[in-house]
Amino acid sequence: MAALGCLFGVFALVVAACGSDSSGGGSSGGAKVSGSSLTVYSSLPFQGTSKGQSTAVQQGEKLALKQVNNKVGKYTIKYKSLDDSTAQNPGTADEGQTAQNARKAVQDKSTVFYLGEFNSGGTKVSLPILNKAGIAQISPSNTAVGLTTNEAGADPGEPQKYYPAKTRTYARVVPKDTIQGAALATVMKEDGCKSVHIFNDKTTYGAGLAKNISSSAKQQGLTVEGNDGTDKNAPNYRSLAQKVKADCFVGSGVTGENYIQVFKDVAAANPSIKLYGPDGVAEEAFTNPKKGGIPASVGARTKITVATLGLDEFKKRNNAEAEKFFADFKSTYGTSKPDPYAIYGYETMKLALDTLKAVGAKANDRKAVVAQLVGKTKGRNSVLGTYDIDKNGDTTLTDYGLYTVGKDGLPSFQKVLKAQK
Amino acid sequence: MEAASVNQPVAARPGTSARVRDLLSKYGLIALLAALPVYYGISDLVNDGNLSRLGENVVAGLSNGAIWVLVALGYTLVYGIIELINFAHGEVFMIGSFVSFSLYGTLGLTLATGPLGLVVGLLVTLIVAMVTCGVLNVMIERVAYRPLRNAPKLAPLITAVGFSFILQNVGVLWQGGSQRGITDLIDAQKVLFTVVGVSVSRADLLAIAVTIPLVFLLTAFVGRSRLGKAMRATAQDPEAARLMGINVDTTISLTFLLGGLLAGAAGLIYALYQTQIWYFQGFTAGLIAFTAAVMGGIGNLRGAVVGGLIIGIIQQISDNRDPTGLGPELTPAIVFFYLVIIMVFRPQGLIGEETREAG
Lengths: 421, 359
What we know:
- Chain A is α/β, with parallel strands linked by helices.
- Chain A is 39% helix and 18% strand.
- Chain A has helices at residues 2-19, 51-67, 95-107, 120-132, 177-190, 204-219, 238-242, 259-269, 284-287, 296-299, 311-316, 320-333, 340-359, 366-376, and strands spanning 37-44, 71-72, 75-83, 111-115, 136-139, 170-172, 195-200, 223-229, 248-252, 274-277, 302-306, 380-382, 385-387, 400-405, 411-417.
- Chain A is globular.
- In chain B, 74% of the residues lie in helices and 4% in strands.
- In chain B, a hairpin with a 2-residue loop joins strand 2 and strand 3 (198-201).
């Protein structure tokens, strides 16, 4: 009996040793998926202020999958949706929950793609876990520079620290913040700003973007009077707002980091200041006073940049993919006016499916999928226009949309911004 | 003999130390509290040629502090009578804000509401928020603390923490986990008048105008009424109070009711002042208010008032002075630095404890 116990103990140790992995399980490198069923995970924040955008992304993803009847070649594609936010930390990716989601995908032997996160701070957590397991990842919305390059705006050690497997497994369909920073500086200059004061939410996204805005603004001849971090837990920012003396203000943060209050307090302390926000606040929860967003009087003074363009803009460009998207979206969801993020969700899934299609029978080989996604996505005709995914995983698209707050409280597209880098 | 000679010089040292401590306790703390405003006052005079910036800090500090005062009074009342840190008190205050916000909708209070409708509506909101929080606090006492009256002190402390989490989650379920911007019914930051360069906003006036009468009413109630006397007797010696015919349980419930009423009022003022509410607001406010109560002298009503106002002013000065080294990020450290120094040299708080232990 004792011998049996010892044997069992040794067996357990061997199993434990084989299974142990600092990233929470899964093998290193790209394993082949057995069977004819492949799984695509989607991880987005469904609680709090980002719910609307996440739902739009998810609608787009599901639509793309529906168009191919969940089939790519001989493989059936299963779609699993995960929530990376929590009730206590809504509106953004909760780091613990995000890590849990990534580990879940890693532990699932049929996983070939992971779509997400919505927030750059979340991807910072999930990317190393997925990279180690060789799983291809595409984000519909990440803009933080450091996720893919070490250009201005990145922190020390970025982006290498996100790729422990030393290979690139991540791509995104929106331009990085180097472009958004330049876009914001461009619009401020067009509006006659001479000086700008920046607040950032101290997240990967907000702090990184603030650096990009600052450097672009300086390049374009604007005086940067300050770049201050804000604390999400502060009840108000009146003291901080009082020190803003510039003629223009950028709130480089996301709604969930208390940026409604930031904009309200800066606007109240500086009645004539022009207000600018990035894609992190381009949502109804921020723009619509009826949904607890900024008051209409503040909204009237606010301009927002987002990597999404207006629906009419897509139509204007005679993009056949876009035409198909709008038609299918209407027949599936009953509206021809989807949230712009639905387009990015759609393209994210389309890119994943086309990548699987391109590798054909090797769609079950994670290594082949990753090599196709990051190395061979060239001249892709998509709903967003024609683009490449470069060797870092970045899109070559550079267009940004300028939005104001419409009378209905929704972000309203004004024009395409051609950023002067 | 040997022992005595060994002890003699040692005994002399505490005497000197005690004298120094006494001096520091009497004058050092006053100097310490005055240091920040005096330093920045001189700085403002040199840089701006006037004291209006410091004046604005003080006014904003007093109005912010007024909210902490109302919450701190709840902590100090409860601690004074049953020596319990009611960790759930901050969350009762949060519920006060949530109830107030919900009543905006029920009563139809919007930006379009006229001045009379607004005053009446806000008065109704104030009363409902106060009563709701008062009743809630009494219920918490009945469910979580009363059954543990004779249990080790740790037991009610843990149930208090438990209730704090329960109420936080009620808040999450009720209004979600994000900060929720709410209608600025009173145009909170609108300047009402300016005196010698110091502007006073509507929010400042509201906070002070609601807090002062409530504090006077509470002080009068505790000091002069029959029930107030029962509260003080229970605080001094519950057993003796019971022998004298005082219903101790009812008196304790009354204390929780008063604390809850004040928390409800603070909840409405906070909602109007900050124009946003959040399930986590009670945690932060509770921590600050409890610090205020300890700083002033736990169990002492005047102490809670003094502590709350001092913390409010320190916060505002620190928040507003980041080019000179301070700033919002350092504010909690500055506040707790003051608390530590005060506790070291005056453990009973600025005004002095009024608890059974303190006598």
